[in-house]
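Z., the sequence and structure:
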Amino acid sequence: MYILVAADHHHQAHPRILVRMKSPIIFIFSLLLSSCYAAVQDFCVADFTAPESPTGYACKKPATVTVDDFVFSGLGIAGNTSNLIKAAVTPAFAAQFPALNGLGISLVRLDLALDGVVPFHTHPGGSEVLIVEKGTICAGFVSSANTVYFQTLEKGDIMVFPQGLLHFQFNSGRILAEAYASFSSASPGLQILDYALFGNDLPTELVAATTFLDTAQIKKLKGILGGTG
């Protein structure tokens, strides 16, 4: 491949110079493009036969992936709210929806019966965006500076809960409430404060020393939430 290069204006006697390019630019660009394309991995559908690691599940072999891996129908059915907190959370995390593995997104459905509540809890692995589909939900979170942000949400309202901060949802209306939440992680994790304090075998005396609650109340809550000690 040849290109014409004009002579320097200080040397006008010289004719134009033919310069041969060693490698055509278009050819090099096409090589780079094809190399980048070959390196792209479109998805990493979870392989549940392999153990989960802190970075997620191993990938299924592409030949074994089907369209069913990319479809999840579990959020179309209301959860069972016949429990202590009168609430049901139906997850669509990587563990239930294998195509989400490695994508940094997930969803849940939240059903709250009358007076239903999702107690103070955190998601260590991701931030949450909640949208109310039905009913009225009082929701809020506490910042690391112990500032409280809460609001009563109606149908169509959206609220965000930053990653790792304690937050709650409570049905403050007169009908069943329904909401959906998305997360910035395929496996955001969940730790409910009440169960962390009273649903384990930490000795009552230690719980009392760290929470300033009296031992009788702690033992009562341990009895309700399944704790011992």
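The first strand starts at residue 2 and ends at 5. The mean pLDDT is 88.

Let me know what you think.
H.
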